[in-house]
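hey so i finally got around to running the thing on that chain from the lab meeting. sorry it took forever, my laptop kept dying and i had to restart like 3 times. anyway pasting the input first so we r on the same page abt which one it is
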Amino acid sequence: MAGKLLISTAYLPPVSYFSLISHSDEIYIEREENYLKQTYRNRCYILSAHGPQLLSIPVYMGSLHKTSVKDIRIDYSKRWQQVHLRAMTASYNSSPYFVFYFENIERIIYKNYDFLLDLNMELLEAILDMVKIRKQISYTNTFLSVGCIENDFRYKITPKIKFNSPVKGYPQVFNNGVKFVAHLSIIDLLFNMGPESLDYL
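ok and heres what got predicted. didnt touch it at all, straight out
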């Protein structure tokens, strides 16, 4: 899928998000849209011993007025960083490549960014580097209406709808030989496949 790609910001987004990036020439992240709850913008799913586990970043929604995603602030009154990092460790510390990548992810999460958009972008750039994907990522400067470009995936990659993309299996820590669990965060692929992650994408 060569050409221009328009996507939402996302917290440690699913593998399909990175697959789109890897096959696109120009990547734009929407920062002018109104923030949407219960999306990958502030949440991800990892695979725990009990199945998929939701990790969600608490945010301040401000007033009842609609808030631009670029203005969404992270709520540090809740100990979400410790919860997320403990969950990642419990889920992946026995995976083959956990020790190679976790420390960098941990460092970024503990940086205490004010804005969700900034945290998401640093994690995105760090993981692209880990996976060896070399792409220039830009932000939108104005809100682009839905359908204005062909490859608009801002509202297609969402926990509420299973994104219709080819899903290839790979070894996972907790699937114990049962059915492969798809639509997880990129860290599931990274910790399990390491340098081979790019070939998977």
